[in-house]
Amino acid sequence: MVDLLLTLSACILISSTILPMVIQLMKESTVEKERYAATVLLYEKLHELLIENQLPVNQTIVKNDKQYEFIPSLDLKEVCIQFENRNQNKQKVCEFLE
């Protein structure tokens, strides 16, 4: 009986420390996947503008039922893409133009 209680205590202790870490890792993984998708979209848009020889302008892009704001800086040295993540927080990915 003591062995069973000791084993149960160890399982509860391990699960109470590991489970929150796993949940946090899953959240961070989701955030990184969203940032990666935004970065890919940013580079696709820049490539499209380069091929068409156009200047970047503010634009809203909808992809996979998600809205992205394509925002170039005033001096056209930097372009950003802004989006809301799952927690409704604004995220921004920027890249310098050369």
UniProtKB/TrEMBL annotation:
<protein>
    <submittedName>
        <fullName>Uncharacterized protein</fullName>
    </submittedName>
</protein>
